[in-house]
Design brief:
233 residues, mainly alpha, 10 helices
Length: 233
């Protein structure tokens, strides 16, 4: 995902935000006075995040779908489980529902990852703020900005992740023999969660997710940005 993010950042910087209009806007805001080379604005980072999120969704959606179905097989006797493993799960879904079935939940995944706008937009804001107003080193800025921006992302997007998981664990029905399908669309799943559990249903498991997000993403962004700095231009 970070590779596609970097690619879209460059595309937007060189082909969209390098136009005279955006350069004049940056000059009026004072950014050009501090930087000889125009910087990609915060909204550009957010847009690049959305584009990267959409790109990775087409790879991640079927993987997350299969993982979600395997995780809800609670029978201790393996012979009673519908799926023997990820390969078997893929084969059975493909035989019964084709690629459309394998990509079940794609719309919810795309909607969920559209919130990458807040992740990478806030990452730019935190990075600039920490660089301009503290004496932190570049790696320290990457660490703190990565962790804090991940918190922003999960605070804004977590309800959609819950909906996505509900969609991906909903029975597909048909010849698969996993039960009767309940939700035709992601909106139906959202309504059911709200009806049964209220707003708290959208934040079930939120605290462990938030606690995991900071260190995991802080370290990931520290490593990624360190590698990018080490690479030749």
């Amino acid at each position: 995902m970070l590779g596609s993010l970097t690619f879209y950042r460059r595309i937007l910087k060189e082909n969209v935000f390098s136009s005279p209009y955006f350069q004049d806007t940056q000059s009026r805001s004072g950014e050009r006075a501090l930087n000889a080379v125009p910087r990609l604005p915060t909204v550009g980072h957010g847009i690049a995040g959305v584009m990267a999120g959409c790109t990775v969704s087409f790879i991640a959606a079927p993987v997350e779908h299969v993982k979600a179905r395997l995780q809800i097989q609670y029978a201790s006797d393996k012979s009673k489980r519908l799926y023997k493993g990820p390969i078997d799960c893929c084969n059975k879904i493909l035989r019964s529902h084709g690629f459309h079935g394998l990509y079940h939940g794609l719309a919810a995944t795309l909607l969920f990852r559209s919130f990458f706008f807040f992740w990478w937009g806030s990452y730019d804001i935190f990075s600039r703020g920490l660089s301009d107003h503290t004496a932190l080193s570049a790696p320290a800025v990457n660490f703190w900005a990565g962790g804090l921006s991940a918190q922003v992302f999960w605070i804004t997007s977590y309800p959609l992740d819950v909906v996505k998981q509900r969609i991906m664990t909903d029975p597909l029905g048909g010849t698969l023999g996993d039960g009767e399908r309940k939700f035709a669309r992601w909106k139906d799943a959202a309504r059911e969660i709200a009806r049964r559990d209220g707003y708290r249903g959208f934040y079930r498991g939120f605290l462990p997710c938030l606690l995991r997000a900071f260190p995991a993403n802080a370290v990931a962004l520290l490593a990624f940005e360190s590698v990018m700095r080490a690479l030749p231009e």
